[in-house]
Amino acid sequence: MTRMGVGGWLTLSFGAVFFMVPLVMTLAFSLWEGGDRYGFEAYHLLLASPQLPEAFLLSVELALSTIAALLLLLVPGMIFMNIYAPGLRPAFEFVATLPFVIPAIALVAGLTSLFSGPEWLIGTPFYLVIPYFFLALPFVYRALDVGLRAIDLTVLTEAGQSLGASLPQIIFLVIVPSLRTALVGSALLTLAVVIGEFTFANVLLFRTFAVFMNQVGRHEAQGAAALSVAAFLLTWAAMLAVLLAGRGKTKSPGDA
Amino acid sequence: MANVEVANVGKSFAGRPVLSQLDLAIDAGELICLLGPSGCGKTTLLRIIAGFIAPDAGRVRVGGADVTDMAASARRMGMVFQAYSLFPNMTALENVRFGPRVAGVAKAEQTTRARSLLDMVGLSEHEHKYAHQLSGGQQQRVALARALAVQPQVLLLDEPLSALDAKVRVQLREEIQRIQRETGVTTILVTHDQEEALSIADRVAVMHQGRLLQVDRPAAIYREPADGFVARFIGSGAVLSGVTEGAAVRAGGRLLPASAAGAHPAGRAVDLFLRPEHVRIAPMAEAGPDAVIGEIRGTVFLGAQTRVHMVLADGASLWADLPSVQAEGLTIGVRVVARWDEAAPRVLPTTG
User: Cβ of B89 under 8 Å from any chain A Cβ?
Assistant: First the structure.
């Protein structure tokens, strides 16, 4: 590998400044207590709020449900498409890009008029899993697509069949474990999308983490900043956990 | 170990016939090579035997039992693919154990069997490595061990050496032959490499445009090609077109000695095939009235031998393999006499 020149360092520093400044300012603001006093007041208040754990838990539950729904549908769906109907790929690509071009507010309107039941679903916050599914679909599709392209699905399937394995055995023993990095990536992206989603939850009057953060921000600016910092650290910790988990014994074929 | 019988098998893709009315009987314990240029249908035939493709017509029988409608996973045929077929999430040992594992074999037995097979392919020390930590040749050895772990009735090898470099390819094909002899498993190898087919097969099946042209021992395929395509495809040599005239072929106004021409009616349009190892070169001083005279156009040094390219008066090419010491004295542009034993040429009716 060649050494990085002055230009490289400059670019890197500029990037670092660009990303770090807003974070540092947010952190500083969350610690500001008026005048020249700084402290953890905002964080104390936040932790004391009984709604925080509730809102955060709800967001996490929604994220987990969305992840489950997406993976259960997309993993087998994309495996079958790749093996048996590769001609359908353009259709899959098209559908997976749709959520990017439809504004969230239009989705909400369409959704509420289309899904009027069943009762057990629409009355609860888990109704949000439906829009979240579509919001996270493009990210999950992309991540899985990259993972599937890295392995030769047809050859692996045929190799498994010739060794006497059934299709479910091949999927669970070979394909899914080979897609580990892609699956973890999809789950993480979905988590990030769902935790940060505001429009749907706000319009449909559910108090998720993002809605709670917004409410706090309206009358308590430092509190909202504190919440942002906390949310960032949480996401960062999750990323780190994934990274460490990825260093386990299994490696994707792309690794050196 | 079982015999394989392919009866009247046909297959078309999008209206284009790939295999037509193909019959092939493979003996138990035999190593047979399906050889042909790309697109000849050899891989399609292998995949029909494996159960990955259903034939449009005909039957496939293994050990006397009809398997045509049986799922690939129920056929107990080990298969080795061209490349990248090892399960990336498993070590070499886990890959080899996979077959017995899904068959419900006891865990201790899975490991014992897998270890002995890895030992057979010489990879005992690499059992804990993943596919990406193994070289191409090692990966194919693991794939071979994995296919043998299911104790297959038939072993199917789909161009297993084509992705490897030349030296490894030769080593591994000898290994395949040794392992095939040791295990005695009926083996079908698909290849487009004639050297590979001729060097390891008990019998070679030459395919072209969805048909079997000749199925025979390697030496017979080389010496007595049954068909113009086989003669051109296998080995190298000259093809001279002409008409029969007694025990010779008249081509380009000259009589070329070939006793095999006598088997055809006089005046028949034929192709005369002449291998370079049968052609000798003599100085012009020895030219008789019926001498075949050629002008030397080039030489290719092959080590012990040198291949000499000559052009006859009518423009047809002829090649001769000479000991390199003898070929050193030849200069390009010199005219020489080409000779061969009259029993050497193969004479076949002109096709197409």
Answer: yes
Measured in angstroms, the CA of B120 and the nearest CA of chain A are apart by 19
Whether the Cβ atoms of residue B272 and residue B258 lie closer than 8 Å to each other? yes
For B83, the closest chain A residue by CA position comes to A155
Mention every residue, 6+ apart, whose C-beta is less than 8 A from residue A78.
Answer: A92, A141, A144, A145, A148
Flag whether residue A123 sits within 8 Å of chain B, measured between CB atoms: no
First to last CA, chain B: 41
Give the integer Cα–Cα distance in Å for A94 and A90.
6
Q: What is the pLDDT of residues B323-350, one digit of tens each?
A: 998 888 888 999 999 999 989 999 998 8
Q: Which domain holds residue A146?
A: 52-246
ipTM summary value? 0.84
Q: What is the pTM of this model?
A: 0.81
- A20 assigned to some structural domain: no
Question: What are the chain B neighbours of A165 within 8 Å (beta carbons)?
Answer: 73, 98-99, 102
Tell me the chain A residues in contact with residue B67 when contact means C-beta distances shorter than 8 Å: none
On whether residue A98 sits in a domain, the answer given is: yes
Q: Is residue A45 part of a domain?
A: no
What CATH number has the domain bearing residue A169?
1.10.3720.10
| Order of strands across the sheet that contains B280-282 | B280-282, B335-339, B292-301, B305-312, B317-323
Q: In Å, how far is B144's CA from the nearest CA of chain A?
A: 11
Alpha carbon dihedral A247, A250, A254, A255, in 10-degree steps, equals 40
Task: With CB atoms and an 8 Å threshold, state whether B85 touches A155.
Answer: yes
A-proximal residues of B, 171-210, CB under 8 Å? none
